[in-house]
């Protein structure tokens, strides 16, 4: 380990807290945002690096350099994702997953060809060389940055985003407000990655499902740090399974086993160079945990939108067709407002300071009014929300898999007979009838099959032909065993044998990665356990993507919904959903409607290596093959309750 200043990183860790603070004071470092000892260590590490003429990594050091010092102290897999179906969700409540004695999981030792500080400008330059706002500059979604991705070329690193980039934290921005929506949040990790900007927002509202045992102290510390500044942070826990109309359940009904599983950042800022105020929207698949965000395969859609302006003025939106923007329907805006309305958070507050209005009114307003202030007309995706409850009549088509069906009918360019790819990190307790109906809503039957209409009930196909209609991409035990985290990585893939090994599902499984251990994929994602969730419809020839869904939805009835009778003796149908979820639907048609493509037809293709896209292609970093490898007799589905016999890379057996 390289010596920084007169001390190594390991020597810094041996210092007491008082000694760390004393040394930081001599370097004129403000320790107000240092919540734990490791924060002080990182701060001193960075200060010594700057003194010796070398720039410290991002937030006080490179996790990949020192994480090998942290050892796991348990031989069990802790499940991190609570989005399983119905009663199975009870088994996922081992929230000791980030107890301090666990520390951060080991990362692979990667020899970076260059530093992160050097890599980012080159990746940005590569994006600029693509032609600014041309078709080739749009990347509909990115993967979360890992130590492995930092070893890639600049042209490949453009497909990855760090936690700070996901949040929209960049130089040259003045911050106004921030809304965080997530299931599982480690607030210490959030502070490590988002400081000092996290304390610069006038208003922060955090909607979350659960947090770790140490997090309440960090939340209180956050509040104390803002005292006397005029800035505020509000924490809102959402638990649909709590009593109705209670503090944690704003719904008029109690939803057993329901959770808040959505993962989203909304952030308001002003670009200092242009003076344009914007809203950064980031919808992703990662819990706010070190192991989730930096060690696993995750996906994120992010797009920035300007404030609404008077007709004739430029919006400054890089995705905009200026002459058509005012005519674009407000579907994205309406869907986002409708979704946020379900939280029933009605606090009226000013979202910016009076001294820096960011173009916003500093008069008190609700979150819904705040969102309405921005122009989302150039969004290149369709929101697919799920909201807990029993949805009736036309409302049911705005949520869950019925909203996905609506998007397929309206925005899929053409029908295809290729099997649908379903990749997710948790599998609910499914039955063949529901799965067949779900597929009929999305495949070539979508327009003729309406699951709500009683007369069409008979048209739903059975389970005998499921293998020709869908493929499940799910990691095998061996793939989890050999991933960068070993068996611990499987804790975020909480499938259970009783759900996974149903007879009608067994022919559907396909591997996450190639059977060739030397083939890590064009973006080297195969060794990072998948927590990303994607539903993908390949073209008939298997080379393009007709449409895809990226978001928090797993393949479960709780997340996607189920058509039921309103009452036992009623003929009225309702859509019953247990979870809050949010995803984005992307297709060539949604991209073309929002982008400046000069009348060209757009094709959506997975990145397969070889550099930039050409012509009318839009590349996406799909982290698995569009034609995945089917299981053979040696492949066994990963399950958190399955006994293993071979040790992982850390010598553990579960």
SSE blueprint and pairings:
Blueprint: H1 9-13, H2 17-26, H3 37-51, H4 63-66, H5 116-129, E1 142-144, H6 154-157, E2 160-161, H7 163-167, E3 173-185, H8 187-194, E4 203-211, H9 215-226, E5 232-237, E6 264-271, E7 277-284, H10 290-295, E8 299-306, H11 331-341, H12 367-372, E9 382-386, E10 389-392, H13 400-411, E11 420-423, H14 432-440, H15 466-469, E12 470-473, H16 477-481, H17 497-500, E13 509-510, E14 534-538, E15 545-551, H18 557-560, E16 562-565, E17 573-577, E18 581-586, H19 588-594, E19 603-606, E20 617-620
How would you characterize the largest beta sheet?
Answer: 8 strands, mixed
User: Strand share of the residues?
Assistant: 15-25%
Poorly predicted tracts of residues: 53-76, 86-120, 122-134, 311-328
**Helix amount, in percent?**
10-25%
**Structural class determined from secondary elements:** alpha/beta
Write down the overall mean pLDDT. Answer: 82
Task: Explain what you see.
The structure is a single chain. The chain is α/β, with parallel strands linked by helices and 654 residues long. Helices cover 22% and strands 17% of the residues. The protein contains 19 helices and 20 strands. Strand 3, helix 8 and strand 4 form a beta-alpha-beta unit. The radius of gyration is 24 Å and the shape is globular. The chain starts with 8 loop residues before the first helix and ends in a 34-residue tail after the last strand. About 14% of the residues have low confidence.
């Amino acid at each position: 380990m390289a010596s920084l200043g007169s001390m190594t990183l390991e020597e810094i860790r041996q210092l007491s807290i008082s000694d760390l603070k004393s040394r930081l004071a001599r370097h004129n470092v403000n320790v107000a945002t240092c919540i734990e000892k490791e924060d002080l260590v990182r701060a001193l590490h960075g200060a010594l690096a700057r003194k010796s003429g070398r720039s410290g990594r991002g937030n006080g050091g490179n996790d990949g350099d020192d994480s090998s010092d942290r050892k796991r102290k348990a031989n069990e897999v802790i499940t991190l994702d609570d989005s399983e179906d119905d009663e199975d969700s009870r088994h996922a409540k081992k929230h000791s997953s980030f107890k301090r004695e666990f520390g951060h999981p080991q990362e692979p030792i990667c020899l970076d060809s260059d530093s992160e500080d050097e890599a980012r400008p080159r990746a940005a330059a590569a994006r600029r060389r693509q032609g600014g706002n041309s078709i080739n500059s749009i990347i509909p979604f990115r993967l979360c940055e890992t130590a492995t991705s930092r070893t890639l070329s600049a042209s490949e690193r453009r497909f990855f985003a760090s936690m700070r980039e996901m949040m929209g934290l960049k130089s040259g921005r003045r911050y106004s407000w921030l809304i965080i929506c997530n299931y599982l949040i480690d607030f210490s990790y959030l502070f490590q990655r988002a400081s000092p900007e996290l304390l610069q927002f006038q208003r922060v509202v955090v909607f979350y499902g659960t947090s770790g045992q140490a997090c309440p102290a960090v939340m209180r510390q956050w509040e104390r740090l803002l005292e006397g500044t005029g800035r505020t942070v509000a924490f809102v826990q959402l638990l649909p399974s709590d009593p109705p109309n209670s503090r944690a359940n704003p719904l008029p009904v109690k939803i057993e086993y329901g959770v808040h599983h959505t993962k989203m950042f909304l952030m308001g800022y002003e670009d200092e160079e242009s003076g344009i105020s914007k809203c950064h929207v980031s919808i992703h698949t990662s819990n706010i945990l070190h192991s989730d965000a930096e060690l696993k395969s995750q996906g994120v859609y992010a797009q920035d939108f300007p404030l609404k302006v008077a007709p004739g003025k430029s919006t400054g939106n890089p995705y905009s067709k200026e002459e058509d923007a005012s005519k674009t329907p407000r579907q994205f805006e309406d869907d986002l407002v409708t979704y946020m309305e379900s939280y029933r958070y009605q606090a009226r507050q000013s979202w910016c300071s009076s001294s820096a209005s960011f173009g916003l009114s500093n008069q008190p307003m609700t979150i819904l009014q705040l969102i309405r202030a921005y122009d989302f007309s150039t969004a290149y995706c369709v929101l697919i929300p799920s909201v807990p409850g029993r949805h009736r009549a036309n409302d049911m088509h705005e949520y869950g898999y019925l909203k996905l069906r609506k998007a397929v009918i309206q925005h899929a360019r053409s029908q295809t007979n290729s099997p649908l790819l379903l990749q997710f990190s948790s599998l609910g307790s499914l039955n063949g009838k529901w799965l067949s109906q779900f597929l009929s809503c999305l495949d070539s039957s979508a327009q003729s099959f309406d699951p709500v209409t009683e007369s069409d009930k008979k048209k739903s196909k059975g389970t005998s032909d499921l293998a020709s209609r869908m493929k499940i991409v799910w990691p095998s035990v061996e793939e989890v065993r050999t991933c960068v985290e070993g068996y611990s990585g499987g804790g975020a893939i909480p499938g259970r044998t009783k759900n996974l090994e149903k007879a009608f599902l067994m022919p559907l499984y396909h591997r996450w990665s190639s059977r060739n251990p030397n083939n890590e994929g064009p973006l080297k994602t195969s060794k990072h356990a998948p927590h990303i969730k994607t539903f993908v419809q390949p073209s008939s020839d298997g080379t393009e993507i007709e449409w895809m869904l990226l978001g928090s939805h797993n393949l479960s009835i709780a997340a996607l919904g189920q058509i039921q009778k309103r009452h036992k003796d009623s003929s009225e149908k309702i859509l019953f959903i247990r979870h809050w979820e949010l995803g984005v639907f992307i297709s060539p048609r949604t991209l073309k409607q929002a982008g400046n493509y000069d009348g060209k037809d757009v094709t959506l293709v997975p990145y397969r290596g070889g550099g930039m896209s050409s012509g009318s292609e839009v590349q996406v970093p799909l982290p698995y093959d569009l034609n995945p490898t089917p299981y053979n007799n040696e492949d066994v589905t990963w399950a958190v309750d399955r006994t293993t016999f071979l040790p992982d890379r850390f010598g553990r057996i579960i």
